[in-house]
Amino acid sequence: MEQINIYSGKDVISKVLIDNDVETLASLLEPYRKVYAVMDSAVAADCPAALEIAAVLNSKGAPGMLVEASEHEKTMETVLKICAWLMEQGADRDALVLAIGGGITTDMTGFAASIYKRGVRFAYMPTTLLAQVDAAVGGKTGVNFDNYKNMLGIIRQPKFTFICPSVLESLSSRDFLSGAAEMLKSFIIEDGGWYGRAVEWLKGYSSTDAKGTYLQENVEELSALIGTAVSVKAGIVSRDQFEGGERRKLNLGHTFAHAIETLAQRKRMESEDAPDITHGEAVAMGMVLAAELSDAYRRESGEPIVQENGFGWGLEQRLEADFLSCGLPIGCPFRLSLMAEVMRKDKKAEAGKVHFILPFAVGDVRMVDMTIDEVVDLMS
Ligand SMILES: NC(=O)c1ccc[n+]([C@@H]2O[C@H](COP(=O)([O-])OP(=O)(O)OC[C@H]3O[C@@H](n4cnc5c(N)ncnc54)[C@H](O)[C@@H]3O)[C@@H](O)[C@H]2O)c1
Question: Whole-angstrom Cα distance, residue 240 to residue 137?
């Protein structure tokens, strides 16, 4: 079992455990007297590993609650339902609340556990790639509010995050690739050769119809990729838990992505036929836009544009080519002026400026503060 720690100074504040055996969950729950499980209903219905997870929970006498994982349900109302259920169950301050599901389930459950009785302990068993490499690591919890993503929330660390890569077998390829975008993001921030390895793995995944078999046969390399992506995030969070500086790098592509998600959600409220966009898809599009902005910024400020590993062009084209070969979407469906309107309200804007994370090259991202007007000028 691989263990990656998250620190505050010298103290371990959260542990990430990676092991392909679901049974490992039983030993991780051992120290906790009373466990309350909140599970994504789709995981309970579709994921073969859910039976093994249920057996572990039953042997622990842990009651369970099912939640629906959709952005529409990622609200304060659902958080209050989880709190009401914990009250009904008589959960006290000794409780450990275990979330089993993707990022929506872990974000909501972590938030509910953080406000219930002024905060009880919680842990995660993420069941999507996105949650394994990102959402369930680092302590950000929260819900959507007033049509804005993750507007209410708190940073509080889970006791542990248990990553079992084989549970991803039942994930749809769309959801799998959504997580792949966040994994690639980690390697664009810190490379060490892993970006290329991830692209190769994902090319194989997206080019086969037998995705479950491909995942099983290549699960060791996938576990190594997940472990390294988690180490990148854990290192950054350990150095800057509350996002005063370096942690902002993890927002690569996210200012654009949040605008894309907000606009997509608005469109879907107008018409149910409007296409939905997953978080990871929005992040992939957002990273391409960030690379476009970065190329434009460097051209404007006279900085040389690095030739990307023999690619005789800027980073935008390299990311586009790589993402396409991995099966990720790259074309943003919204006009820049519409995106700008939403980005002006970004919760991370300070004094009219947004900390944009610009990828200068794979493995080299830098923070540049810009107003949205400056961004629009550069990208027009
Ligand atoms: N807290 C953070 O730091 C952080 C970071 C990134 C993203 N997020 C949040 O994470 C959310 C996206 O997470 P996500 O992509 O995991 O979404 P999700 O939780 O909606 O899961 C995606 C879909 O996969 C299904 N699913 C989950 N596990 C499955 C499995 N093993 N087999 C079959 N189906 C399964 C879910 O029911 C859902 O339909 C967003 O709300 C985003 O804001 C949070």
Answer: 13
Domains in the chain, start-ordered, CATH in brackets?
2-171 (3.40.50.1970), 172-380 (1.20.1090.10)
Cβ of residue 109 lying under 6 Å from some atom of ligand 1:
no
Helix (H) or strand (E) holding 7: strand 2-8
CB of 165 closer than 6 A to ligand 1? no
CA of 180 from ligand 1 middle (Å) equals 12
More confident: 301 or 158? 158
Answer yes or no: is pLDDT of 312 > 80.
no
Give per-residue pLDDT as tens, 144-159. 998 788 899 999 999 9
d(CA 123, CA 210): 32
What is the Cα–Cα distance from 335 to 190, expressed in whole angstroms? 31
Instruction: Identify the residue whose C-alpha is closest to ligand 1 atom 12.
Output: 103
For residue 231, name the pLDDT band (cuts at 50, 70, 90). Answer: very high
DSSP state of 62: -
Which atom of ligand 1 is found nearest the CA of 47? 32
By annotation, the residues acting in catalysis are: 118, 140, 182, 233, 243, 247, 251, 254, 258, 279
Among residues 48, 35, 169, 155, the alpha carbon closest in space to that of 99 is found at 35
| Any atom of ligand 1 within 6 Å of the Cβ of 102 | yes
**Residue 307: per-residue pLDDT:** 58
